[in-house]
Design a protein that fits this description.
Keywords: ATP-binding, Kinase, Lipid biosynthesis, Lipid metabolism, Lyase, Nucleotide-binding, Steroid biosynthesis, Steroid metabolism, Sterol biosynthesis, Sterol metabolism, Transferase. GO terms for molecular function: ATP binding; diphosphomevalonate decarboxylase activity; kinase activity. Belongs to the diphosphomevalonate decarboxylase family. The protein has 381 residues and is an alpha+beta fold. It has helices at residues 75-94, 122-137, 144-154, 210-220, 223-244, 248-267, 278-294, 318-328, 353-362; strands at 3-10, 12-16, 21-23, 28-29, 33-37, 44-51, 62-65, 68-70, 106-112, 166-170, 181-186, 194-201, 299-302, 309-314, 363-370, 376-377. Helix 1 (75-94) runs parallel beside helix 2 (122-137), helix 1 (75-94) runs antiparallel to helix 3 and helix 7 (278-294) crosses helix 8 (318-328). The longest helix is centred in the middle third of the chain and has 22 residues, at 223-244. The chain is globular. The structure holds ligand DP6. Ligand DP6 binds next to helix 4. Ligand DP6 is lined by residues 14, 17-19, 27, 33, 123, 155-157, 210-211, 304-305.
Length: 381
C-alpha cells in the first residue's frame, strides 16, 4: 500500500520585513514580520508526499522539484523531515495500531505554477507545501502555528505561508525557538480588495542570497540595531492596526517605509548589499507619481532581496495603478496582464520619460494578483 497526500501552498510578500537571524541553526529572527498571502491562482507550489513499506529502503527519501531530482540532504530540509517524523513516531508510539509511516522512505514531488527563475519567494511556498503535505500524510494533529515552527526551519518566510490573508511571524524570545511562530492577523475575506501587481525585473547577475545577506547585515550594520529595536516594533503595531481598520493609507505608508528601512540597512552593511536597481527605483518614482496625481495614497511598493517590485493597491484603484504601468509598458512584449479589459483602461498617469523608459526596458513580465487563501489539500497530480 502507498500512502499519499497532496497540498498547495501560497507565496507571501512581507510588508514588515524579516531581515536578521538571532540563531542561524534554529532559524530564529531578530524581529517579527508581517506579510500578505498572495492568491494561489497565480502563484503556488503543489506538493505530493507519499510513503510505503514497499519503497526500497536503499532509495531513502527523495524530492522531484519541477520535474528534476533535487537534493534533499540540505540541513534545512533535513531539519523539517526529522521533526515531522518525530511527531508521527510519537503518534505511532501512543497508538500501536497505526501503520509505521515514520519508518518508510518518503517521496516528495513538488511543482510551482510560476518560473522559479523569476525570483519570487519560491522557498516560502516550497517549504510550506513540504511541511503541510507531510503533516497531512502523517495525519498530524498540530495546528498551522505549530507546523509554522517546522517550516520556519526550512526558510524563515515559509512559516508565514501556512496561513492565508494577513499573517504575522512573532519572533519570540525563547532560546529554543518554541515561541517563534506565525499566526493569522486577519483572513483574506476581512480585506479582500487587496491587490498586488508584481513587476518582474531581470537582474544582470544573481545577488547575495537573503540568508547570507542578512547575516552580513547583523554583523556589520549599525543602522540595523535601530531597525530591530525601534523601527520594526513600531511598524508592526501600526500595520496590525491598519489591517484591522482596513486603512490603506496607513498600510501603504508602513509598507513603503519598512521596505526603505530594510534596504537602508542593506546599504549600511559593510561591504554594502544592493538588491534594488535602476528599474526598481523607477518603479518607486512611478508609484510616487501615481499617488501624487491621485491626491491620496493608492499604491505602495515593496522590494525583497532582489529587484522585483511588488505594488499593493485596492481593487477600486486598478485603473490608476495598473493603467499607468500598462501604458508605460506598451509596446513591450509582456505577458501577465490578467485580462483583455486591462487594454481598455484609459487611465494612465503619464510618467516622466526616463522613468517610463527604465520600466519599459527592464520589466520582463507582470503578475496581477490579490490577497489569497492558505494551503489546501488537493488532488494529486
Ligand atoms: C527579504 O525567508 O528567504 O524576503 O530564513 O534564510 O530562508 P531564510 O530567509 P528568507 O528571507 C526572506 C527575506 C525577505 C523578507 C521577508 O520575506 O520577510
Amino acid at each position: 500500500k502507498v500512502y499519499r497526500a497532496s497540498t498547495t501552498a501560497p507565496v507571501n510578500i512581507a510588508v514588515v520585513k524579516y531581515w536578521g537571524k538571532r540563531d542561524a541553526k534554529l532559524n530564529l529572527p531578530t524581529n517579527s514580520s508581517l506579510s500578505v498571502t498572495l492568491s494561489q491562482d497565480d502563484l503556488r507550489t503543489l506538493t505530493t508526499a507519499s510513503c510505503s513499506a514497499s519503497f526500497p529502503a536503499s532509495e531513502g527519501d527523495s524530492l522531484l522539484l519541477n520535474g528534476s531530482p533535487s537534493d534533499i540532504s540540505g540541513a534545512r530540509t533535513q531539519a523539517c523531515l526529522r521533526e515531522l517524523r518525530a511527531r508521527r513516531a510519537a503518534l505511532e508510539a501512543a497508538d500501536p495500531s497505526l501503520p509505521k509511516l515514520s519508518t518508510y522512505p518518503l517521496r516528495l514531488v513538488s511543482e510551482n505554477n510560476f518560473p522559479t527563475a523569476a525570483g519570487l519567494a519560491s522557498s516560502a511556498a516550497g517549504f510550506a507545501a513540504l511541511v503541510r503535505a507531510v503533516a497531512n500524510l502523517y495525519e498530524l494533529k498540530d495546528t498551522p502555528s505549530e507546523l509554522s515552527k517546522i517550516a520556519r526551519q526550512g526558510s524563515g518566510s515559509a512559516c508565514r505561508s501556512l496561513f492565508g490573508g494577513y499573517v504575522a511571524w512573532r519572533m519570540g524570545d525563547k532560546e529554543d525557538g518554541t515561541d517563534s511562530m506565525a499566526d493569522q492577523v486577519a483572513e483574506a475575506a476581512h480585506w479582500p480588495e487587496m491587490r498586488a501587481l508584481i513587476l518582474v525585473v531581470s537582474a544582470a547577475k544573481k545577488g547575495v542570497s537573503s540568508s547570507s545577506g542578512m547575516q552580513q547585515t547583523v554583523a556589520t550594520s549599525g543602522l540595523f540595531q535601530q531597525r530591530i529595536t525601534t523601527v520594526v516594533p513600531e511598524n508592526m503595531a501600526i500595520m496590525e492596526n491598519a489591517i484591522a481598520e482596513r486603512d490603506f493609507e496607513k498600510f501603504a505608508e508602513v509598507t513603503m517605509r519598512d521596505s526603505n528601512s530594510f534596504h537602508a540597512t542593506c546599504a549600511d552593511t559593510y561591504p554594502p548589499i544592493f538588491y534594488m536597481n535602476d528599474v526598481s527605483r523607477a518603479a518607486i518614482r512611478a508609484v510616487e507619481a501615481i499617488n501624487e496625481k491621485a491626491g491620496r495614497t493608492v499604491a505602495a511598493y515593496t522590494f525583497d532581496a532582489g529587484p522585483n517590485a511588488v505594488i499593493y493597491y485596492l481593487e477600486k484603484d486598478t485603473e490608476a495603478v495598473v493603467g499607468t504601468f500598462y501604458h508605460a509598458l506598451q509596446g513591450a512584449d509582456i505577458t501577465g496582464w490578467k485580462n483583455e479589459s486591462i487594454k481598455e483602461l484609459k487611465c494612465g498617469i503619464s510618467l516622466d520619460e526616463n522613468v517610463a523608459a527604465l520600466i519599459k526596458g527592464g520589466v520582463s513580465r507582470v503578475i496581477m494578483t490579490s490577497v489569497g487563501e492558505g494551503p489546501a489539500p488537493t488532488e494529486e497530480f
